[in-house]
Specification:
Layout (H helix, E strand, L loop, with lengths): L6 H14 L7 H7 L15 H4 L2 H5 L12
């Protein structure tokens, strides 16, 4: 069974959510309404080449975005 946990994908999503959160915000539906891009499963392709995300290095450790930096 292949390893399922992917360090770069996990951390990139956490960083994207974090850069869109606001202090005191506790309504998830309002958050999603304000940040609909976070529902796009292909969002990471704005920041990473597919070959980068498919690499062993990205799966096993943090790899910086190679297209655009993650905001924040």
């Amino acid at each position: 069974m292949p390893q399922r946990y992917h360090v770069t994908i996990s951390r990139a999503w956490v960083e994207l959510v974090a850069c869109h959160t606001e202090a005191g915000e506790d309504d998830f539906d309002a958050f999603l309404a304000r940040c609909p891009d976070l529902l796009d499963k292909r969002l990471l392709t704005r920041f990473y080449r597919s070959t980068t995300l498919a690499s062993v290095a990205a799966r096993n450790g943090w790899v910086e975005p190679d297209l655009h930096p993650i905001p924040g």
